[in-house]
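Hi D.,

Good news: the full-assembly prediction came through. Inputs first.
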Amino acid sequence: AQKITQTQPGMFVQEKEAVTLDCTYDTSDPSYGLFWYKQPSSGEMIFLIYQGSYDQQNATEGRYSLNFQKARKSANLVISASQLGDSAMYFCAMREGDSSYKLIFGSGTRLLVRP
Amino acid sequence: EAQVTQNPRYLITVTGKKLTVTCSQNMNHEYMSWYRQDPGLGLRQIYYSMNVEVTDKGDVPEGYKVSRKEKRNFPLILESPSPNQTSLYFCASSFVLPSVSTEAFFGQGTRLTVV
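Then the structure:
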């Protein structure tokens, strides 16, 4: 079974509007962390935001916020006031509290911001 | 500047010709890992290392080798590359503590083509 599911292969958003990128996860570990990374066309992976499983509040970082719904096992990324530079691939990832310490990635969502 | 450096950025090689992709980090991170990124699959872990001389297989280790002789370096070795190893490769590093919340820093990526 997929541990991280991103159901939107591609999305469009109008400049200055908000957009939500979906991410659902599957784990039985009570301790886990959820990450979002941005990958622009140049290829590098840029860390955006982190949410811990025990965090009571949704994480926010500037225009990025994470809509964390623990019971639904979802961790959607919300980008407010989209900019042309937000056009990129976005990956949701999870780290569980086991010994491997690895990040498990979803398949990604390609976001295109229209002027 | 804190960074993970991979070399080369681009590589085209022929089937069976041994190659090494280097990875170096300057943040004194204990944990280092290699991922490959393929369309529709996200990033998948190849190998990881929790510290010097400690390495272990990730999800897709076949055809790859790694070594961790020094804390800062974690080279990826393809002894006999095949076309199905054509991919975008990322090296990443992080501290082991404080466990799941630790952000992973990624290298710039190495685009490998095996013909």
